[in-house]
Design goal:
The complex is a heterodimer of chains A (about 350) and B (about 260).
Chain A: H1 2-40, H2 43-47, H3 54-63, H4 72-84, H5 89-98, H6 104-113, H7 118-140, H8 151-156, H9 164-169, E1 183-187, E2 190-193, H10 210-213, H11 225-259, H12 262-270, H13 272-286, H14 293-298, H15 306-318, H16 321-327, H17 333-358
Antiparallel strand pairs in A: 1-2
Helix pairs in contact in A: 1-11, 3-5, 3-7, 4-5, 5-7, 7-15, 7-17, 12-13, 13-15, 13-17, 15-17
Chain B: H1 2-27, H2 31-34, H3 40-66, H4 93-109, H5 117-123, H6 150-159, E1 170-178, E2 187-194, E3 203-210, E4 225-237, E5 240-253
């Protein structure tokens, strides 16, 4: 028994180290890009170019990840800033759910891990896009997102634009004092209903000075010494945070792989339905960073169905224990549960299709 | 207070130690136990990157320490116009660094070891490749049989599993010894792990070997490395006809620097 145990420990340790050694360069890249783009790209300029149609907006939001390659730990602060700056809900939600997967570094890492199964890489991207776009679209039916947000965020959010029919009702045929609503007094044309401010040029809460630092035409901030210092600080901060998560995740992967009885894994992993359910659960529990989760999934590649690996790769970056904690800093529990249920269902259906028809 | 003071140092040392560990594995050649050679470059670059970041941060901390221990965020630094990047932390700040530093230190003092024959048995030893492996795109029968590696034999068998095709061909392969539990003393398996990315996806493959008459497998303990010369034959093992190496000579060899095959 004793040699078997040492053997197991030795294997687990080698596995653990190999996951870390393979994943850390990708983590470093992810952190670097995230730092560079958070510090140097003016997201407000970006927002102005996003289409208004809810479905297209959700799709565009999902694709914005290509410019902000952040994993799920970095996208929550970005999504929150987007919302506060008045980005439509479908765009922000599409971004929140898709950005961890739809970005060059994650796609490269996935390709590195699944070189032999390119379909996994392609389907991961496609399924993530579909899921994020659909969920973003679903949330576009909620005109005013504020009831679903944490109070602090809701207060910072600009008011939703009223429908145009509603605005016409407000044309001042009646004296302004008899109208109901909120008015800004002392404007050039007398009292002005607050809604009219939302029409075109209304800018939500701006954090004063930041606007002046960028040239009006450029999408990028200028390089400066302070920004480099800031980049370094954000990298160190993220490395320590995500590195810790990576260590824990790799340890779990190694222990699960070595410690679980092989029959159990094989039985779970071979059935088209149970393998997906097991991987969805694992994805939610392990909370491994999307930059490196492909390597984690790879350790199950020999024993689990392709569909279930995909389920892990699509669902994990959207919803996991760590991500839920972060999301609750923006959304109320109700909204997070909607995300979870919708994402799990969509992922399950699509990956089951893979298992049944492509497997 | 103490944490606040030592936190940045801890981060710096953790980052530096990982950079050193990655480079150490590369220099000592242990990287090949952990990952596929395709990614050596990436790891080395990662190691260098970490050392640059850690080194720069260290230099900055030393400077700060000298200049009266002013914190980096102090208003004397002329950067009020840059909004601080918001970051939400899950762990207490020093937890991640402590964890990373401890793992790096363990990695620096211990040496990773290859998987053993026991692991090969646990993972399921077969002479077929898992579906996830790169399937042979072309069939090169022109290779001289005695030049084929163990993996090339396995690939070939995957393409054409009929053992009779190969009867009489010369075999010369290297691998480690495995003692499967349910076969007689006269047989061993010669095996190798193949990896596509890192040790996490190591997958064992192997072929049965029939020892020359009069020899028992006790002379060849598990995990020892052998170079086997012999002829291909077909034997019935555990109710299945399998390509078996009829060994003429078994030579003990040291464990290769790179134990995996690709």
């Amino acid at each position: 028994m004793q040699p078997a145990l040492t053997n197991q420990l030795n294997n687990a340790f080698t596995l653990f180290l190999s996951l870390l050694v393979e994943a850390i360069p990708f983590l470093l890249l992810g952190v670097l890009f995230s730092g560079v783009l958070l510090g140097f790209v003016d997201e407000r300029k970006l927002i102005a170019r996003i289409p208004r149609n809810p479905l297209l907006g959700a799709l565009a939001g999902s694709l914005v990840g290509f410019l902000f390659p952040v994993c799920e730990c970095g996208n929550v602060p970005v999504a929150r800033r987007l919302l506060i700056q008045g980005v439509p809900a479908p765009v922000a939600i599409g971004f929140l759910l898709a950005a961890p997967t739809i970005n060059p570094i994650v796609i490269w890492a996935t390709w590195t891990a699944f070189r032999d199964q390119p379909e996994i890489v392609v389907l991961r991207v496609v399924f993530s896009l579909i899921t994020a776009t659909i969920i973003g679209w679903v949330f576009s039916t909620q005109k005013d997102l504020r009831p679903l947000l944490q109070p602090a965020i809701a207060r910072a959010l600009p008011l939703p634009k009223p429908d145009s029919s509603e605005t016409q009702l407000l044309t001042p045929e009646t004296p302004s004092l008899l109208q109901s609503g909120t008015f800004i007094l002392g404007m050039p044309g007398g009292a002005v209903p607050i809604e009219s401010l939302l029409q075109d040029n209304w800018k939500p809460l701006q954090t004063g000075k930041t606007e002046k630092t960028s040239k009006p035409s450029s999408l990028f901030h200028r390089l400066s010494k302070e920004r480099l210092g800031l980049l370094l600080d954000s990298m160190v901060q993220e490395l320590r945070e995500l590195g810790g998560v990576l260590v824990v995740g790799s340890a779990i992967a190694a222990i699960v792989q070595v410690g679980t009885p092989r029959e159990l894994i094989l039985n779970l992993g071979q059935s088209p339905v149970s393998s997906i359910l097991a991987m969805l659960l694992l994805a939610a529990v392990v909370s491994i960073c999307s930059t490196v989760d492909a390597f984690f999934a790879l350790s199950f590649a020999a024993t689990f169905t392709s569909g279930s690996l995909l389920a892990f790769l699509v669902f994990g970056p959207m919803i996991d224990i760590k991500g839920i904690g972060l999301m609750l800093s923006i959304f109320k529990a109700r909204a997070v549960i909607y995300f979870m249920v919708l994402a799990a269902q969509l992922t399950f259906l699509m990956t089951l299709g893979v298992n049944l028809y492509l497997g | 207070m103490i944490l606040k003071k030592f936190g940045p140092w801890l981060d710096t040392v953790a980052i530096l130690s990982w950079g050193i560990l990655l480079l150490k594995y590369w220099i000592t050649g242990k990287l090949s136990i952990l990952i596929h050679p395709n990614y050596f470059g990436l790891t080395v670059a990662g190691g260098i990157g970490l050392i640059i970041i850690g080194g720069y941060k260290m230099w900055e901390l030393i400077q700060l320490d000298r200049s009266n221990q002013k914190s980096r965020t102090s208003p004397t630094i002329n950067s009020p116009r840059i909004p601080k990047v918001e970051h939400i932390t899950l762990f207490p700040p020093s937890f991640g660094s402590t964890l990373m530093l401890s793992v790096a230190l363990i990695g620096l003092v211990t040496t990773p070891r290859t998987f053993t024959s026991q692991t090969a048995l646990e993972r399921g030893l077969t002479e077929s490749l898992p579906i996830t492996r790169l399937q042979p795109q072309e069939f090169r029968n022109t290779t001289k049989p005695e030049k084929r590696s163990l993996i090339e034999w396995v690939r070939l068998l995957n393409f054409n599993p009929e053992p009779d095709t190969y009867i009489g061909q010369k075999v010369k392969v290297q691998g480690f010894v495995i003692h499967p539990p349910n076969v007689s003393e006269q047989y061993i398996w010669i095996g190798r792990f193949i990896i596509t990315c890192c040790a996490a996806d190591a997958y064992p493959v192997g072929l049965p070997v029939k020892l020359p008459i009069g020899q028992s497998r006790t002379a060849f303990p598990p995990d020892s490395w052998l170079e086997i010369e012999g002829k291909a034959s077909s034997e019935e093992l555990q109710g299945k006809r399998k390509l078996t190496i009829q060994a003429d000579s078994l030579k003990s060899i040291p464990e290769p620097k790179n134990p995996y095959d690709y």
